[in-house]
User: Fold these one by one.
Assistant:
Number 1:
Amino acid sequence: MGRLTICRTDEVEEGEFATRVVVENTAYAVYRLGDRYYVSIDLCSHGPGSLGEGLIIGDEIECPFHQGRFHIPTGKPTLPPCTDPVQVWTVHLDGDEIWIDPDEPPSHR
Ligand code: FES
């Protein structure tokens, strides 16, 4: 099991904004929904949109590029033009540190 630190909880925007974080040359989007944190890949599956720069609407993230949406906990597309899921990872918390296992198999999700 790998361990990749994404950021600290106090670096994640509260409210309607996602947070974009670059770790080891990969951009991730981090979300806070209430007291829970979620991590997906930053790049939209539809094009060049950055989900970390998108708006959180309920439990969905709206891509700022064409306003398609994904379900944050699962990465499933919920509004066209998005049709393919985005990768998400199980979030692990260690104190205020948010980390993921970059090797987590997709079948786990
Ligand atoms: S690039 Fe995200 S909806 Fe098109």
Number 2:
Amino acid sequence: MKEKKEKLLEIASKYGTPTYVYDLDRIKTQYQYLKDAFNWPKLAICYAMKANYNPDILKTLGSIGAYIDAVSPGDLYLALQCGFDISKVIYTANNMKETEVEAVMKTGVLMNIDSLSRLDKLAKKYPGARICLRFNPDVVDGEHDKIKTGGDLTKFGILLEDADNAALIAKKGNLKIVGLHEHTGSGLKKTDSILSAMKNIMAIATPIRFPDLEFLDFGGGFKVPYGPDEQQINYKKIGKNITLLFKDFCIDYGKQLRLIFEPGKFLTAQAGALLIEVNTIKQNRERIICGTDSGFPQLIRPMFYDAYHHIENISNPNGPFKKYDICGNICETGDLFANQRKLSKIREKDILSINDAGAYCYAMGGVYNLRPMPAEVVLDNGAIRLSRKRLSPEQLVSLILAETSGNV
Ligand SMILES: Cc1ncc(COP(=O)(O)O)c(C=O)c1O
């Protein structure tokens, strides 16, 4: 632990702050854990690259056999550039316009279709295509309302009761339905939800309705502990039930299908940290405001989902504990990483590590207030390597001006 803190301080001193750090070895360990937990001969772990599209992470996961869940043309092109074979990519976008469908179909990627309307259009334009169908599993779970993707209050997937309609449309267009998919939500709180969603999909996956199935894909959502009271779920324990359930299904279906999961958070969240520097300490009556050199556009989860991220003062880990508001440098009142958080005494110039920041942090980032995104550094077999540099404000402005050159 001490060694890790020293490494983080070394990174902050060498590359400055704000800087994201990703431990590639931890990502490999997480991947292997899931491979072991779901012991099925035809198992695919399909990395939901929306969680973190850093090319070093993509290449690392590609090198150990991961598949890719891509959700946009940008995702797809980056995955291909990082060496993924098109046969290992599933394209799960929603609300696509025609130009997107045309561009993506040209690559030969397997499309995951999530509405009857899109299915109908696809059947007319691409008769004979191989596709996957995304269903709404009708199970509601997830660590925040904004990331629950099953049930009535979500835009995702085809309703289970429309399975016959979907099969009929596909049959008319001679479409080959090779896979069925669901994703219940992110940070599933109850392991029962995974089993319930699987059962709901299996119930519609009959050989009469869908005779050409090659796989069932049960999405992501494996939870990681963020807060001090949260426990790590033992997925190895429920893995046995999952593989047994799938085995029985395959016997009934009459074919050994591929079992697919699409984790994002589970693979990368705990492997990442955002290093930030304290530049201002302000005593606002009874509150101590700790001002830092990052802000919510660079790590939005606390502001967007009220998410908890553990924060450590790695410059002064043994100081007396006090309560702080850990704030960013953005002109918004809600620009807070933590509210009244107990931390070891913070001084100006201290480096704070915002932990578990490897998923949905950099990837959801932006340059609001025109502050460039942090650098990204990887720990690869323990060695420190710059993965992506931080632009200077001048470089960021040059990019903006280059893109708007006709207008200024
Ligand atoms: C379709 C789909 N699959 C997989 C994931 C990954 O979820 P998580 O990062 O919680 O594992 C998501 C994220 O929301 C998703 O929308």
